[in-house]
Amino acid sequence: MGKFKKLGVILTSTAFSFGVLSPVAQASIPANESSMKIEIQVAEADTKVTKNELIKKIRTLFPDEFNFLTDNDFKVGGGHYYSDDKVIRHELYFDKFVNGKNIYGSFTLKGDDLELENFHYTPADLTDALFPAKISKDEAQKIAQNFLKKFPNASNYKLQEDSQGYDYYISRPLSEPTRYSFSYMPTQNGVPISDQYISIDVLGNGVINSMYSNSYTGKKATFDSLEQKKSETDVLSQMRDNLAVELRYSIDYDFTTDEREVKLVYLPIQSFNGVHALTGQWQTTNGFSTLAPKAQTVEKLSAQPLAPKKNGITIEEAEELATSFLKVDSDKAKLTIEMVDERENEAKETIYSVHYMYSYKNGGTGGSIEINKATGEIIQFHDFREEFMKTNESASEITKEVALSKAIDYLKEWAPSYVHHYAKSMDGYSFDEYSNYHYFTFPRVVNNIPVTGDDISVGIGTDGSLRMLYINHQKFDNWPSAGKAIAPDVAKETFSAALKTKLQYAKQDNEDKQHYDLVYAPTYDGVIYNQLDATTGEWLHSIKPEDNTPIISHPTAADELNYLLHQKVLEVKDPATFNADKAVTKGEALKIIMKSMTYGYYGSYMTDDEAKQSFPNIDSKHPLYQIVEQAVGMGVLEPTDNFKVEDPLTRQELAEWYIRALDLETAAKRSDIYKVNFADASTIQPNYVGYVALANSLGLLDAQDNKFNATSNVTYAELAVSTIRLAHKIYEKNDNRYY
């Protein structure tokens, strides 16, 4: 067993298992999710579908796409089903070297009809998918619509107009293909089914890139009739008459900077999800009720702080604690502590991660348990012993109330110093049928205000045992004062004015798993789950249709400028008055280039041990620090005495950056082997000759009237055109260091 100290980021939840003969649940289990889609492997002998049948189905669905593959190129993966869906899935994939590139594709087909549930494939040549893309979004939508027709009941699917309402990345590498995404929701009686969809991605060259179907109702599914539904007007009145809002803290995480911010928000009371369209009952997190939802009273798990379990523990003591906590009957399995490592989490707490393994007759399973070094308290644990400890004996099942009491008792026993920060929640409960435990979430409370995004999760088995524990305690210095919030009546009126309804079918978490109720769901400013910034009164989320209308005018670079603007690579305060012929500064140019080459992630680019300052004038507090350091790390910049952010960028300097970005600097430094025939060649500084020659020969930077204008300032228009060209060259190199 190894023991070492490691400061950095590792996975906070780990589960792994292997088995022989018997099906084994294999999953990495997110502790803060109440319902988990556990994948159950199926023994090969239990699958009756042949490889040839799978290949035939794929060639029928894609008659022209995979002609470069022989049947021998396809490989069969393992069969599986899910804990909540017993239909067997079959996996088929290929991995082949084509035109100098490794091409991978995977398919998942389910049931006796081998319906395609999931696939992903990227062709070898994506040149036509880069900007400017070969096809438009409208053309891509037609391709997706035609592909949708290959699925059962395709005519009942409806395109979700807001499916592109949220952008996951601030920007994406321009060397990546244009990708159009479409989401279709199945309907019954013309009403969408809320928990199902089919997503289809089409590349800019017209190739279908991926597809995922979460659409399955089963033959036994039943649906409420539309005949007796209440009018939308009446339901809206009912909602507005009973509308209530509550003040909460919300933790907002910006992955582009790796920063967390606490916001003070108003939101509708959490227990209100909609109104039953037939009965008028309120849909809550715990089912339908005749009582209108009301804001709950904050009740802390402990009125006073409790002493920590220990005042610091060693790595050896952490191992001893884990061994005692995880012990099992030796006749059932053998526990092995594989490793203990030490790290710092986001809250700056030092954590011991104890990695362990259970070995038993037909296989093994394992994971990790996390312990706070300063307090000796368990902050993360998931019990995998059920994998091999299950018996035929029927244990007496405890009630929800008893389970809640035990959950609080376990917290006071194993993590007492955290308890007084958290409160009970009427909404934070569900029952996990597969794992057979009661699942509770306890929200954090600060200044008597509940916090969204910081909670404790606890799973209690029906036998009363602790099955899961996850503490996500975050530290912030500044919690906005409630005194800065707009009045509750003003917030309520804003929600009321923006309130509309969306009729949908929804399946409840009750005994009848096959029935779909007809529900009017509330939307606020077009979003079902929306929040209001309590200090500004503005909506935090807004569904806006994608608008790629050109808004920047320019005689030679309009297309490129507008593309960079819509891709969030170029930031312009007022496009109408933007002067694209203005000289761009070095700082602004570097930001544009780095955004065009990367996903726009400038968070914890380096660990604390690696953190450095490449330029004396660009420290960690400078707004361009992360961008500059990433550029240095990628070789685009070389550390010098100063990085003159506000100085204009010259064409010869841009040539150097581009050639460095393409990792061609070694060749460029051999300036003596280049002969430049520009009329103004004498204006090129000797140390830039190789860079200029290569940038011009690669088509990145053009000469005008046989003049390169090496010392002229680069304009936004020139930068936009050349950045697109750079993206194409990066794609040709296929170098993933740009991400």
Automatic annotation (TrEMBL):
It comes from the Bacteria. Residues 611-672 form the SLH domain. Residues 1-27 form the signal peptide. InterPro entries: SLH_dom (IPR001119), YpeB_PepSY1-2 (IPR014239). PROSITE patterns: SLH (PS51272). Keywords: Signal. Transmembrane segments: none annotated. Pfam families: SLH, YPEB_PepSY1-2. This is SLH domain-containing protein.
